[in-house]
Amino acid sequence: MKFSKKLTYWYLQNKRNLPWRETKNPYFIWLSEIMLQQTRVAQGLAYYLKFTEAFPTVFDLAKAHESIVLKMWQGLGYYSRARNLHFSAKHIVNELNGEFPTTFLEIIKLKGIGDYTASAIASICFNEPTAVVDGNVYRVLSRYFGISTPINSTAGIKEFKKIAQSLIDKSQPGMYNQAIMDFGALHCKPQNPLCDSCPFTNSCVAFEKNLVKKLPIKEKKIKIRKRYFNFLVIKTADNKTILSKRKGKGIWQGLYEFPLIESEQIINKNELISTEKFTDLFPNETTILLHNKKEIVHKLSHQHLYTQFWIIETKSLENTTISWENIQDFPVPVLISNFLEEFQSKN
């Protein structure tokens, strides 16, 4: 049986019932695909339902304030996805009269949309035979064909896209793309794939040559940078604090944070108060307490943040405009969100 037919047959027996599978509305498909980048379905589903309730149309998303969008995204990480989603929603409304692009070449022009997302939307919503290639697809194809080309190399990206395109069922490309993604997620899993009940056992090169655990191959390119953060959590006598919106380009652009002192290594209380930023910020007497006895390690894709939260109590301080009663209204990185949840439960 042809690869695509066998895959589609498996999909019809095993597919997941997900809300974005019940529509061909490109806005909903786009939203789900952006959310599921770097995010498991189990986690993304709750966010998808929350977003579609708050922003049922692209017009609703476009007119929302960025801080509201970021607050609702809080916990998903990779916040550039939310900023790009919001930017493109405004572009669709203001420049395209609210009409979502209908072809791969037009869809991929939207900010934050790459080959994979454009292929998914074009095939599912508009029946264009453009093959998706994500982590699940790389894994299925590398194992089935026994391909050792690194999936994150230039050659690998081209090779796998070409193979994926050659396999797609042109009569139902949307279903085929969803089938191969589900097959990778549910059956041909990274760890403990279900080879004993696999419909492709008789033709899978990796299974035949005992390469299942070795494929796919990925080049190690990422160099992890260590950074040391000291957040100054201010509490004044009238229960105010400082939260500042992070500016410039970066992972937390548009999110709010406590005053931050970045150091070369983990520092103690005496080293903290001797920094220029601390003495500038606190000219008056303060009480200082280290909240976490051991630094919190927050791991991002390219950097690890070794973080200490310092509770600073002072009678009064300039620029303390945020009430602790309203602090939950502000979008913050998950690192700070987790701290706030723990800190406020004890206070």
Automatic annotation (TrEMBL):
<dbReference type="GO" id="GO:0035485">
    <property type="term" value="F:adenine/guanine mispair binding"/>
</dbReference>
<dbReference type="InterPro" id="IPR029119">
    <property type="entry name" value="MutY_C"/>
</dbReference>
<dbReference type="InterPro" id="IPR011257">
    <property type="entry name" value="DNA_glycosylase"/>
</dbReference>
<keyword id="KW-0326">Glycosidase</keyword>
<keyword id="KW-0234">DNA repair</keyword>
<dbReference type="InterPro" id="IPR015797">
    <property type="entry name" value="NUDIX_hydrolase-like_dom_sf"/>
</dbReference>
<dbReference type="GO" id="GO:0046872">
    <property type="term" value="F:metal ion binding"/>
</dbReference>
<dbReference type="GO" id="GO:0006284">
    <property type="term" value="P:base-excision repair"/>
</dbReference>
<comment type="similarity">
    <text>Belongs to the Nth/MutY family.</text>
</comment>
<dbReference type="InterPro" id="IPR023170">
    <property type="entry name" value="HhH_base_excis_C"/>
</dbReference>
<keyword id="KW-0479">Metal-binding</keyword>
<dbReference type="GO" id="GO:0000701">
    <property type="term" value="F:purine-specific mismatch base pair DNA N-glycosylase activity"/>
</dbReference>
<protein>
    <recommendedName>
        <fullName>Adenine DNA glycosylase</fullName>
        <ecNumber>3.2.2.31</ecNumber>
    </recommendedName>
</protein>
<comment type="function">
    <text>Adenine glycosylase active on G-A mispairs. MutY also corrects error-prone DNA synthesis past GO lesions which are due to the oxidatively damaged form of guanine: 7,8-dihydro-8-oxoguanine (8-oxo-dGTP).</text>
</comment>
<keyword id="KW-0004">4Fe-4S</keyword>
<dbReference type="InterPro" id="IPR003265">
    <property type="entry name" value="HhH-GPD_domain"/>
</dbReference>
<dbReference type="Pfam" id="PF14815">
    <property type="entry name" value="NUDIX_4"/>
</dbReference>
<dbReference type="GO" id="GO:0006298">
    <property type="term" value="P:mismatch repair"/>
</dbReference>
<keyword id="KW-0378">Hydrolase</keyword>
<keyword id="KW-0408">Iron</keyword>
<dbReference type="GO" id="GO:0051539">
    <property type="term" value="F:4 iron, 4 sulfur cluster binding"/>
</dbReference>
<keyword id="KW-0227">DNA damage</keyword>
<dbReference type="InterPro" id="IPR044298">
    <property type="entry name" value="MIG/MutY"/>
</dbReference>
<dbReference type="GO" id="GO:0032357">
    <property type="term" value="F:oxidized purine DNA binding"/>
</dbReference>
<dbReference type="InterPro" id="IPR003651">
    <property type="entry name" value="Endonuclease3_FeS-loop_motif"/>
</dbReference>
<dbReference type="Pfam" id="PF00730">
    <property type="entry name" value="HhH-GPD"/>
</dbReference>
<keyword id="KW-0411">Iron-sulfur</keyword>
<dbReference type="InterPro" id="IPR004035">
    <property type="entry name" value="Endouclease-III_FeS-bd_BS"/>
</dbReference>
<feature type="domain" description="HhH-GPD">
    <location>
        <begin position="35"/>
        <end position="186"/>
    </location>
</feature>
<dbReference type="InterPro" id="IPR005760">
    <property type="entry name" value="A/G_AdeGlyc_MutY"/>
</dbReference>
<dbReference type="GO" id="GO:0034039">
    <property type="term" value="F:8-oxo-7,8-dihydroguanine DNA N-glycosylase activity"/>
</dbReference>
